[in-house]
């Protein structure tokens, strides 16, 4: 049986498929605006990947790992150091408690209170304006697909037989593997790899690319790799895994690196080789919706090839598979599908963060992208090691890197403590098209990490301020004015 709302709506004005962030934002706003809305979620709970297997559990785990790291580093702060004996089960219990606390906000009754009918079950289109949820037929005026994504599993011989973990299945683990191989050096692999290493696993990351984070500038990726190397993570670049075999609790990975065949024995494997959109079993062909390996193809108004069907979040081929991108896209969908106004998505000022420690945050273009677009940019840098608050906290690794064109930011990257929080001042400056001179003129409280923005911008003005021309002007003023 499908749990139904008290009021069934077989002919809603808006049907939302998927109870993650994109779907929940769309459904809640539409319901509160008085649109007859039906929300369908195939899983047992609302909240989506972000709440249950993605952002929330991973950041909770990362924080526990940071606390363990700080306990070992306590001697740096004049305190007795301690090497904690980590009980992964207890850590996972805290992860679950945080999820449960947030789950309250995604209670189906809350959305029913907005006038949204909530259904749990698999939705499948049978026609462009009709779908089935088990044995119930629903005909709608407009539809929003927000079904998210799942881990992409590479076709490596023996991997299935040997067994592996993913960012979805990790959260049921109660014991820490002594030796862990992480397949993939992207954001998920780096975040979880560092966290598990800090909790006590011996972690080896196997990345097929020749350098870490190929989407970032080489200097940024190399700086983060150097930090992780110092922590004891083994990162092997250009490593192509060719096969996996399991012998009891021990798993053997065969890989090729630098044209040499190598092997690695571990106790567990974490696959973090990207994600793939959840578009199967939706009957998209019957709905006339075009899709491919990257998901549902949408225009800038987030309309699919069937213009009454929209898509947002990880299930469509938009450029950024982030929770905050899905929330932003839900706003685009609401404007188009509910208010019927032609609003287009614009991703030029969308911050993104890799939650390693220190964090790597970026907004806008990187240096390579700017050069490829033929933009002449001034690169401004300032290290956290010269920021007093970073020195006080013992977190001095990394730097700010700002790209300036005609006096305004076109991109920025921050590698350093709490970079994910600091990036938003720069994002706002880009969104509002504020000249960087205004950042330099803005008073920043002392001592704060945010001073790095002002200090980085000032590197552009210092040579001119203290240059020969200014010095001659000052001497002239001192002679003429008593």
Shape: globular
Query: What is the β-strand count?
Result: 24
Task: List low-pLDDT spans.
Answer: 1-6
Strand-residue fraction? 15-25%
Placed side by side, the strands forming the largest sheet appear as 3-2-1-7-19
Task: Kindly name the structural category.
Answer: alpha/beta
Indicate the multimeric state. Answer: single chain
Number of helical stretches of at least 4 residues: 16
Mean pLDDT, all residues: 95
Taking all Cα atoms into account, the compactness measure Rg is 25 Å
Head-to-tail CA distance between termini: 91 Å
Which percent bin holds the helix content?
25-40%
Biggest sheet features: 5 strands, parallel
Task: List the SSEs and their pairings.
Elements: E1 14-17, H1 21-32, E2 37-41, H2 48-52, H3 55-72, H4 88-103, H5 108-113, E3 116-120, E4 123-127, E5 130-133, E6 136-139, E7 142-145, E8 149-151, H6 159-162, E9 179-183, H7 187-199, E10 202-207, H8 218-231, E11 234-237, E12 240-247, E13 250-257, E14 260-266, E15 268-271, E16 275-277, H9 284-287, E17 291-292, E18 295-296, E19 309-311, H10 323-338, E20 352-354, E21 359-364, H11 367-372, E22 378-383, H12 388-393, E23 399-405, E24 408-416, H13 419-431, H14 436-441, H15 451-465, H16 468-480
Parallel strand pairs: 1-2, 1-7, 2-3, 7-19, 9-10, 9-15, 10-11
Antiparallel strand pairs: 4-5, 5-6, 8-16, 12-13, 13-14, 17-18, 20-21, 21-24, 22-23, 23-24
